[in-house]
Every structure is written in structure tokens, then in C-alpha cells.
Design a protein that fits this description.
alpha/beta; Rossmann fold; 50% helix
Length: 311
């Protein structure tokens, strides 16, 4: 009995220490600089890249299909969004802007499989450096450090604008939409995917849901979440939009990614161990947030919104 109690106490202490580390190292949004610093750190320690591959977003799991490789599901997501948004109708050589390009995974897929000329922008200088290192010579991709709320491109510079899971880091969603649509040529394509909350005005969160949302905001440098319908309306009423915006909730296709992102660490233990003991602590530290994300998306508190419209 004493031995059981001791083991139980050690387990409780372990989770208490994990919780303390999780809270002390929270990544609250203060400004765009905190977003840049967080992604610089994630890129430099290479943990996300080792575990998630070059495409560090969620994957696409067709309904009814299981046992899909985690990294292949991420590549499949890009192809599915291209097809759904109509980007596959664009000719080779089309100019594409990838807003929030990360380390260039999506940009390279767009350039390699579709022949597009891709410009990727991110606020993280470390991501730009790594994206350039990972991009083979001759592939039509270039990467720049740039704030998505202040794009340094002329009006109508691109045939399509692509953005995946970047908008949740923007503290001004209207300005985010303004800048993307401004740089899109008339008749060009916008393809966007993002993390959204449900409509919290129509369906107010419970006390527990408020706690969950607070943690999701504070752990991964998010200033706020808005609903799919809210962001759809922002796009629809923009002066540079055709006004016809189509949006969908892809939770059923992307939700398996959350558990898979944890299981991937079990499948590839040496990916973590090769980075040293600190990487183990860092990987464990992310598990509570991933589990909260999984709960929120499965319960519908959070929604994976995809959007398409024409300039």
C-alpha cells in the first residue's frame, strides 16, 4: 500500500511540475514581436520540424480513411485546399503569395507540383533562413521577412494569395484581409485556412470553455479567435473582394491531426532524443495544449475554417 501511495505521489508531482512549466512558459500575445520570437524559438530548436516535417500545419484525413501517414496527410491537405479553392485552374508560372509561410513546406509543394512562382512571407527571420535552406536550387520559391498586416507589395501583384493557419496570430483580422485582397489581382484567387472559434455571441462559452479558450490564446501567441462567419463577412465586405465568399468547416477532415501530432513523437523517438534532454522537456510541455486543442475542436468550441473568394 505504501509503495502504491509513493508511486501515486510521484505521478502527481510529475504532473504538477509539468503544469508549472506549462504555465510559467506561456506564450502570451503582446505584439507581432512576440509571435516572431515564438516562431524563431520553435524553428531554431528544430523540434517541430523533426516531429511534424516541413509542413507544420494540420493534415487532411478523408472521411472514413484511417492509418494515413501523418506527414503525407499534411501534403494531402495542400492538394485538397488547392483543388477546393480553384487554384488548380491557374496556369504554370502564376504568381502566388504564401502569407505565413513557416519554413516553406506549402510554398515548395505549390511550386513543385503546380509550377507556381511562389513568394513566401513570415514575420520570423529564423523561419525565412530555414525555408531558404530547405528549398532546392531551381525551385521557384523565394522567402522574405514581412508583417502580414503591412505587406510590401503593390496592389494586384499576385494571381493568388494562400494562407494556412496564420490569421489566428493577427490582432487585426480586418487589416489582415485588407492586405491580402489588396495584393490580389482582379479575378485572382484567395485560398485561406485558419483556426476559428464558434460564434461566441450566438453560443456563449461555458465557464470551463472560457478557461480552455484562455489557455489556447496564451499558450501559442494568439491575440483572439473569431468565428468562420465573422471572418467570412470581413472578406465579403472588403472593397477588393468580388463579394462571393465560400467558407466551410473542415473539422472532420483535420481533427485526427491533434492525436497524431502526439503519437508522432512515439513513432519517431530519436527525432526528439537526438536534440538532447531539453527537447524531451519541450515536447512534453506542448502536450497539454495539444490535448486542449483536440478537445476544443472535437467539441466544436473551435472550428477549422477554410475560405475561398475571387479578387
Amino acid at each position: 500500500m505504501f509503495e502504491f501511495f509513493l508511486h501515486f505521489l510521484l505521478l502527481v508531482l510529475f504532473f504538477l511540475v509539468l503544469f508549472i512549466i506549462w504555465r510559467i512558459n506561456a506564450r502570451k500575445f503582446i505584439s507581432s514581436g512576440t509571435v516572431a520570437s515564438a516562431y524563431d524559438a520553435w524553428t531554431q530548436d528544430k523540434l517541430l520540424e523533426r516531429l511534424w516535417g516541413e509542413h507544420i500545419h494540420l493534415g487532411f484525413y478523408p472521411s472514413g480513411k484511417k492509418n494515413i501517414d501523418f506527414r503525407k496527410a499534411k501534403v494531402q491537405f495542400v492538394h485538397e485546399l488547392v483543388k477546393w479553392s480553384g487554384l488548380d485552374k491557374l496556369p504554370k508560372g502564376s504568381r502566388i503569395l504564401d502569407v505565413g509561410c513557416g519554413i516553406g513546406g506549402s510554398s515548395r509543394i505549390l511550386a513543385k507540383f503546380y509550377g507556381f512562382n511562389v513568394t513566401g512571407i513570415t514575420i520570423s527571420s529564423a523561419q525565412v533562413k530555414r525555408a531558404r535552406e530547405l528549398t532546392p536550387h531551381g525551385l521557384n520559391c523565394n522567402f522574405q521577412v514581412m508583417d502580414a498586416l503591412d505587406l510590401q507589395f503593390e496592389d494586384g501583384s499576385f494571381d493568388a494569395v494562400w494562407s494556412v493557419e496564420a490569421g489566428a496570430h493577427m490582432n487585426d483580422k480586418t487589416r489582415f484581409a485588407d492586405e491580402m485582397l489588396r495584393t490580389l489581382r482582379p479575378g485572382g484567387y484567395l485560398a485561406l485556412a485558419d483556426w476559428n472559434s464558434r460564434n461566441l455571441e450566438a453560443y456563449p462559452p461555458s465557464f470551463f470553455e472560457k478557461i480552455v479558450l484562455k489557455q489556447l490564446l496564451e499558450q501559442w501567441v494568439h491575440p483572439n479567435f473569431i468565428s468562420i462567419s465573422e471572418f467570412g463577412n470581413i472578406l465579403r465586405t472588403n472593397k477588393n473582394s468580388s463579394g462571393r465568399v465560400i467558407s466551410e468547416n473542415w473539422n472532420s477532415y483535420t481533427n485526427p491531426s491533434w492525436y497524431e501530432s502526439i503519437i508522432e513523437g512515439i513513432r519517431r523517438p530519436f527525432s526528439i532524443l537526438s536534440l538532447g534532454p531539453l527537447a524531451i522537456v519541450k515536447s512534453i510541455r506542448e502536450i497539454p495544449t495539444i490535448l486542449l486543442m483536440n478537445w476544443a475542436f472535437r467539441r466544436g468550441l473551435m472550428e477549422f475554417g477554410v475560405y475561398k473568394c475571387r479578387g
